[in-house]
Amino acid sequence: MKVLAAVKRVVDYNVAIRVKADGSGVDTAGAKMSMNPFDEIAVEEAVRLKERGQADEVVAVSIGTSKAQDTLRTALAMGADRGVLVETDAELEPLAAAKALKAVCEREKPDLVLLGKQAIDDDSNQTGQMLAALLGWPQGVFASSVEILDGGLRVVREVDDGLETLDLTLPAVVTADLRLNEPRYASLPNIMKAKKKPIDVLGLGDVGVDPAPRLDVLRVEGPAVRPAGRMVSSVAELVEKLADEAKVI
Ligand code: AMP
Question: Which residues pair with 58 in a beta bridge?
């Protein structure tokens, strides 16, 4: 079985986001960038399938600038066998990313595509679902467990009122939720080994994707600054402040 894992380079989750002065987007200049955390979980799951002898090859795929090679190297250090970069300076919306991933699937013919449930930069939570629709493949999104069955896949999903279990035929698209696994840290020897693993570079023309945006971003604003909290010395003081100052009781 061949597994494709989609990995996006995003602003690191520890970085305090700055909005550009003109409100046109997030200022990523100089910000630490990392692999999207849900994609680390997707790569980890793919590598575990290989370690259990259930997958023969894990291919990591990223769409982004040449710097996304770093993200692919991280996936290779975690255990992916090779990488594919669809290189573009354009910021792709989920539909364009899904179309690029579809074209890579047509070249690579994977049995399973693992993605993160959402990218923490745009929080779209759309690419996996769109990819499944474009390919006409079954999808199991927000997976908290993945089990290979004879000729298929059992996915447990976290839904609002509990857990849903789905059996999918392969090929299929699965997106990783937080509790699917705990991704490993790449060891130094594996980071060194990853430097020698191959990365194929394609252009947007090779995958036939038009990067033109379909959405107009009107304005991006940071969250309102919250007033600092205050300590009170007793329940009576709390009740008095809620009644007289906040006027909420
Ligand atoms: P989103 O729909 O943008 O929230 O992204 C969901 C998932 O799709 C991410 O966690 C990635 O696995 C994948 N994805 C989205 N954009 C890209 C990209 N530019 N390169 C690689 N994978 C991507």
Answer: 3
Q: Judge whether 249 lies within some domain.
A: no
Ligand 1 pocket member 36 (CB < 6 A): yes
Q: Is the CB of 145 under 6 A from ligand 1?
A: no
Q: Considering its fold, how many domains does the chain have in total?
A: 1
Rounded to two decimals, the pTM is 0.91
Measured CA to CA, the distance from residue 60 to residue 48 in angstroms comes to 14
CA 45 / ligand 1 centre spacing (Å):
16
**pLDDT interval class at 76 (50, 70, 90):** very high
189: preceding bond cis by omega (within 30 degrees): no
Residue 89 counted as domain residue: yes
CB atoms within 10 A of CB 52: 9
Range of the domain at 8: 2-244
